[in-house]
Design a protein that fits this description.
heterodimer, A: mainly alpha, 5 helices, B: mainly alpha, flat
């Protein structure tokens, strides 16, 4: 069903993650980036929510853009985080 | 909400554009090495969210309205230019409302958000700006 040769021929940690990610249709790193986004958002709770959203959105955007460059993540993830960062900026400047 | 003025709204649009353009150019640096990363979604997002040229055109015409004031009217030439730049400001605000609905409807097509959500958010922002202008003119809160 799955092509497991990569795990037997090149059993490094990176290849295991790459194989797991491709088995899961790129959702492994997708959920990893989502988890990172929410962890950042929660860890910045001493700030205003909008500032925390802006920071978490931008940091997640940069990291997910790097992962998308490596081919581990769909382009929609960095674009989504970029939209979050953009609209959070609009809110911070306009309302606060 | 009471703090949101049209002036801050225009600043917010410019900073929104700054964030989106810097993010898009960041990804295009990667895309130069790995073009496979940039799919149709990237182009679609870029076209609809990247509003730099339209905002720049509007602000540029605002500036040229004052700079190219006609000297034929003497002192009234400056007055004429100020009236025309006030009109351009209103136009800028009008086009920035269009910017808002464009940016939100892009979310609908790129991210698959149902169209009524961005539509209602755009309506909320437009009504906020209209009430802000009303309060600024009549000096009362509605």
């Amino acid at each position: 069903m799955w092509n497991m040769t990569i795990l037997t021929t090149d059993p490094t940690v990176a290849s295991v993650f790459t194989a797991a990610n491709s088995f899961a249709n790129n959702s492994l790193f997708g959920f990893l980036s989502l988890a990172l986004f929410f962890i950042l958002l929660m860890s910045l709770k001493k700030w205003e929510f909008s500032s925390a959203l802006l920071t978490a959105g931008w940091v997640s955007f940069v990291l997910s853009a790097i992962l998308a460059y490596g081919g581990w993540l769909n382009i929609i993830f960095p674009l989504g985080y970029l939209a979050i960062a953009g609209f959070a900026t609009l809110y911070v400047v306009t309302v606060e | 909400m009471a703090e949101a003025t049209p002036r801050k709204y225009v600043y917010g649009i410019i900073l929104f554009t700054l964030v989106v353009v810097s993010g898009i150019s960041f990804m295009s640096i990667f895309g130069a090495d790995n073009p496979a990363m940039l799919t149709d979604k990237y182009g679609e997002f870029n076209e609809s969210m990247n509003q730099l040229s339209s905002v720049t055109d509007q602000v540029g015409s605002l500036e040229s309205g004052i700079r190219d004031a006609s000297t034929d009217f003497g002192a009234f030439g400056v007055l004429n230019a100020l009236i025309s730049s006030a009109w351009q400001t209103l136009k800028l605000l009008g086009s920035s409302l269009g910017f808002m609905s464009l940016a939100y409807s892009a979310m609908s097509s790129v991210f698959g958000v149902p169209a009524w959500i961005p539509g209602l958010i755009a309506l909320l922002v437009i009504s906020m700006i209209v009430f802000t202008i009303y309060s600024a003119i009549f000096q009362t809160e509605l």
